[in-house]
Amino acid sequence: MEIYIHIPFCERKCNYCDFLSGPADERVRAMYVDALVREIGTRAQEIGRGEKITSVYFGGGTPSILTERETGAVFEAVNAGFSLADDAEITIEVNPKSGRDKLHFFRSLGFNRLSIGMQSVHASELELLGRIHTYDEFLECFVDARDAGFSNISVDVMTAIPGQTEQMLAETLAKVTELNPEHVSAYSLMIERGTPFYERFGDIEGPVVGEENERKLYWMTVDTLKSNGYKHYEISNFAKPGFESRHNIGYWKRVHYLGLGLGASSCMPEDGSDVRSRNTTSIETYLSDPLAKEESSVLTRDEMIEETIYLGLRMMDGVDTDEFEKKFGTSVRSLYADTIDDLAAQGLVYEGSSSLTLTDLGIDYGNHVFAQFLR
Ligand code: SF4
Predict the structure, then answer these.
(1) 3-state secondary structure of 110
(2) Which of 57, 139, 202, 267 has the fewest CB atoms in 10 Å of its CB?
(3) Does any ligand 1 atom lie closer than 6 A to the CB of residue 61?
(4) CA of 349 to the centre of ligand 1 (A)
């Protein structure tokens, strides 16, 4: 089982971001930490220490915005309430401006993986995105993180930024590969409703830079990272061998996870099925009742099958069809023979002896492929 902890605070909202996050004053942050510690304690009692936790992920928002005392309180609550595996992957997302002391503190607390939001090396792109840091601040953070003892660092890169040329992306990727982080996440910018970018660029469905350009920048990212020793293990994620994110893989493989904090989602077993739930997204409600749920539903067998396929296809190793058969008592082929044959004939999927994977063309038409598996 995995744990996700949501810290919904950021110094300032980025122009493209539709995550459940935003600025808050110290008083609200302190009240939030109290509520979160209460939620962790209660959920831990319900679940018990029998289940080993293989991954803990502090995400946001910007978890590094909390004070050391607050981060320590949340970390200790998790440690006291749950049974963490000896080799658990314990990640915290940090802003490049977190500062040296905090990075050393995170390492001493027990975090063993950092995720740093860099996005670009170009001042013009960082400014357009509304990021609060410069490339030099990211660089300082990366060096400080190594110095603090982090040997597993993930760097976020954004592609398909309006105005981004191939040359600009090449410069960003060159600087990243020079630093040699263990993991890189590279997502294309999409315009989300309710963001300043939505106001600015309008209600466009695809990427601002156009589909063709976006694909060109995507494949350039894949090729550059692969030629620098990164394994392309998921559509948008790359890792040095052995450094694939356990947190990410757990999600795509449908490992059970407990989400704690404002708006956090969980997928937990109950009576032989899975229950998907989401915590309240209202900060006022959460502060007074951190156990409040916004929604909760029992997944049907069909829903679990669909998720197993379309989440599995996101990974370059694809869906493990042997594992699928063991879990559901029926083969992928027996459920989807026509779909698989059609997609294979179009060159979009490849069916191996024990896997079903996207082809390169299938990656370009991923959403179309996933939709074919919805029953
Ligand atoms: S720092 Fe991350 S979570 Fe916060 S506003 Fe920017 S993109 Fe969103």
Answers:
(1) coil
(2) 202
(3) yes
(4) 34
